[in-house]
């Protein structure tokens, strides 16, 4: 669903945190797809963790290279077609919102994004940004507020009109923001906008209702 990985050399990854959810909620699935073949997860929190293989923690690039073998790609692909594993993916994806949406930031004059962008459409765009370029998210929104001639305090009291203006400017800014801008930012935004057009999500202020899992 997202590009969850085992992490770079010497670094934890998000994929083990997902597999921990499967292990805890659907232990039979965990055993079927991974456990019986020696793969496990260790030192995991809600965000990241590590894989282990037959008791050995996979930390180096050489350690993790085994996960690139075709047999492991096949096992993960098979697991991804399982409805219970898919449910775990949804839970893990939702939980990502907790990493950024409710956190106050000096870049936003002490406000959190939950105070400023409250439509389903807006939150979907922010989530997409965080998945692709998490370090750019608050800077993009701050720049969009400035371009919209709004302070964070004014936006927190804003209407649909203000939010739509900020989002329009935000979408322009994120295409070129930072040293390595978002990948395919325009196309990704177009896909998300399509859900509004089809009536799946709303661009109305206050339409996003959090169901974050912790």
How much is the average pLDDT? Answer: 95
Low-confidence stretches: none
Kindly, what is the distance between the CA atoms of the first and last residues, rounded to a whole number of angstroms? 19 Å
What sort of overall outline do the alpha carbons produce when their principal axes are compared?
A: elongated
How would you summarize what this structure contains?
The chain has 214 residues and is mostly helical. The protein has eleven helices and three strands; from the N terminus they run ααβββααααααααα.
What does it look like?
Helices cover 50% and strands 5% of the residues. It has a 3-stranded antiparallel sheet, covered by helices on one side. The chain is elongated and about 55 Å long. Helix 1 packs across helix 5, helix 7 (120-132) packs antiparallel against helix 11 (185-197) and helix 8 packs across helix 10. The protein is mainly α and 214 residues long. The protein has 2 domains: 15-95, no CATH class; 100-197. The longest helix is centred in the C-terminal third of the chain and has 15 residues, at 160-174. It has helices spanning 15-25, 27-33, 61-64, 70-80, 83-96, 113-116, 120-132, 137-147, 152-156, 160-174, 185-197, and strands at 39-42, 50-53, 56-57.
